[in-house]
Amino acid sequence: MPTAPPVTGRRRLAVCDLGSNSFRLVVFTSQDGWWRRTDEIYQPVRIGEGMAATGELGAAPMRRALETLEVFAHFCSASGLESDEIDAVATSAIRDAANQEAFLSKAVKRAGIPIRVLSREEEATYGFLAAVNSTTLADGCVLEIGGGSLQLVSVVGRHAAESASWRLGAVRMTERFLDDDGPATKKQLDRVRAHTRDRLERAPWLGRSGDRLVGVGGTVRNLAVAAQREADLPSGGVQGYVISRETIDGLVDKLASLPRADRGKVRGIKPGRADVILAGAVVIQTVMEVGGFPALETTEAGLREGVFFSRFLADRGDPPVFDDVRSASVLNLAAQYGVDPDHTAHVAKLALSLFDALAAAGLHPGDPMERELLWAASTLHDIGVAVDYDDHHKHTRYLVLSAGLPGFSPREVALIAQAARYHRKGMPSAGPLAALLRKGDNAVLDRCAVLLRLAEDLERSRDQAVRDVAVAVDGDAVTLTLDAEGDVSVPRWAARRENELFSRAYGRKLLVA
Amino acid sequence: MPTAPPVTGRRRLAVCDLGSNSFRLVVFTSQDGWWRRTDEIYQPVRIGEGMAATGELGAAPMRRALETLEVFAHFCSASGLESDEIDAVATSAIRDAANQEAFLSKAVKRAGIPIRVLSREEEATYGFLAAVNSTTLADGCVLEIGGGSLQLVSVVGRHAAESASWRLGAVRMTERFLDDDGPATKKQLDRVRAHTRDRLERAPWLGRSGDRLVGVGGTVRNLAVAAQREADLPSGGVQGYVISRETIDGLVDKLASLPRADRGKVRGIKPGRADVILAGAVVIQTVMEVGGFPALETTEAGLREGVFFSRFLADRGDPPVFDDVRSASVLNLAAQYGVDPDHTAHVAKLALSLFDALAAAGLHPGDPMERELLWAASTLHDIGVAVDYDDHHKHTRYLVLSAGLPGFSPREVALIAQAARYHRKGMPSAGPLAALLRKGDNAVLDRCAVLLRLAEDLERSRDQAVRDVAVAVDGDAVTLTLDAEGDVSVPRWAARRENELFSRAYGRKLLVA
User: What is the ipTM of this complex?
Assistant: First the structure.
């Protein structure tokens, strides 16, 4: 498995995302091999308010925007952020406003922050970077839908192959086609679909590079939350959640059947988005239909992360993408909590060594995916110590579930979190995460947890004294032989305590030679 | 409020606590103004096994002890701990063993770790330091009960005034008086009480310095867990939990009525302690009776923390104690998560300024305890950002509840955690912590949460642009006037959103001038 890239010294980037609906300042920090969002200010500025009628930014929205930019400037100055650490980007509303120039010069005068108005192509590129750096998408398509526009990027071998952008955003489509208060009629929806289908003809490449579709943006995230609620899943974020075409269809039908004022009552739908989500969902539905995508994969990363990745990963070549998103996520989270890397790497090594030997002996299927989950749980098992030593196995679970692991599905994150939860004692169970697991996953959890526990027992002195472990299967018993220097009676004695769980996981008695 | 002491550079101390029942290595780390336990190895060595009969450490227990010491030595060496960063201390079993010398020389030879055998007075002193540095005890008594011995220290003005130690530990008393399998008879218990009472005559000072009694050690902690379960309280640790005399009496009666093998089935009682907990509880009960103590306050700190404090606080004079345990706890937790201290201190300042002005205007009682909780919630409100920016208010609650705040009661910790939980949005409620709160606490929570929110709104630019805030009450309205430089339209606008919660908390409309 790869090791963390050698990043030292703190680097920061404040991305000011000046969207049609809201302005958001997000500070990303990278240091000692990790990166994450460390600060955020959100203001629902609604700079696009009234623009449909006039084509211009209105006086009141502009005033709100300038006040907010001034707060952002104060914040950056108070945080010691230099001008080259601030990147303010504007999208659809400001891009299309007839009085854009006037606004930009006022903004620089009032707040001293220069604003980059993104072209549609640039916006699409940032959406692409957000998607490929937060999922395992190699071939397929990225869909990014905002208030003003829709961007689609076809992806081949983790590179952007084709891209296009249309004025098919959720706010715009609502204003144009669904701007009344009652339930939406079939005729209205068909008009949205026909219009979208017509526009998508400019993208004959849609769906040709593969049938995976990754969705970016608030509309996608909110539909994912609604889909999770409907499936009664625990609300642990939507990163990696897959929404089937049927689920989207069901949500469209349900939202359309309600008067606009009631759409916020659908479980999971945000009240602030209730008036425009239907149009966004219908556009997405039409993209799926035209491109032949069976499902939509959600990512929580968006434009802001795209801007960050374009700088943070600049030395990775073009495009700036992680080689392996999954291992990058795990190592990023581990590095944030400063776990002892020698100990952790050795526990992972011993656990994988046991995994491989038991697979070779035919005691389990040796699924490479299961092996990767075991590696992730081993690498992260101790991060909870940052909260408190007592119950640190439970704290590890909390931290893994809270931060998430981009590139892994919610089910895989649950398995990693539960395996780490049981790295000390107790008989593993899915607990509050049961709804996320599939048939057979309890056995995966048992197998991962007991190997992690054995590896931790063998590395009890934290000095890698047990270099490796050999496995011999004889009838109903598995015998571990330790390759070690010095006295290993305590690791041996500790490992023997895992007999009960080992029997349950592998159907054999455990002996330690 | 005091600020964090200027500690820089990492310091570590590995305390090896070689007790009669278990050996435990705990690593304490202090750095940049915080300290906490960062590592631990536990082995249930039971070095005292069989000693009652022979007066000597047995061959098998000694072998287990030496193996474990070797693991500790490997661990310390792998962690880069120097010999002056390791302090191995032995208590009752090793202190009293006839073959102590032989064991100590074998230990040095095998593991290279010199062992300090603590005198009874030293053991009592460490218990005292653990208690006064983790509670607000100023005048009263510290009770420390282990497997072998009982120590009592009378405390006057946070100094140890008198102390004594007896062979009244839980294991010893069980072996002597309660060593059969059936339920304990009244006669048996009376013999334990009479013996204890007789021994306590050596401490005529017991109870004279005040009626607060703080309990240290595993027996006390386990009784506290059982008391919490019986009261159906959430299991968030026992730090600061107060067990009444009646509750101890009830637990003694319940435990005594059961055969020894069944005592582990009492809710909260650890199976590994079930055979000796009754004797310990009766000794504690007798101390309470003799000293006239109405209740026993629990602390999670023990001998190991005492050893740590004796070094960590050595520059605080004699005895090495925190001036103010409560503020030290809050600042310690805040420092661990590296929140922006200027922002945090300014939010706290603004919140307290509002608190004082509203109290002066007669809009709330102005309770100094409530003021301190507001200060604590303000100081800690952002620590959850260390987990993830999203939902950081919830992560703050998790971190506060997980780490605990020595010096505060579970109820106070719950109020601090819930106030921080609601520092961004939502209408405050006690949520899962309701069982810990008293009548009137929901109003305290509303008042603290809304002032913290207002202070956060006013400090939205994080540059202390709003220097202070003045309050004017006129009829049914409270008007805030900001003392600020530059444009404050956004803070003003943000603060106006708190109207609903402000009305609920203070029964007045909120206006921002």
Answer: 0.87
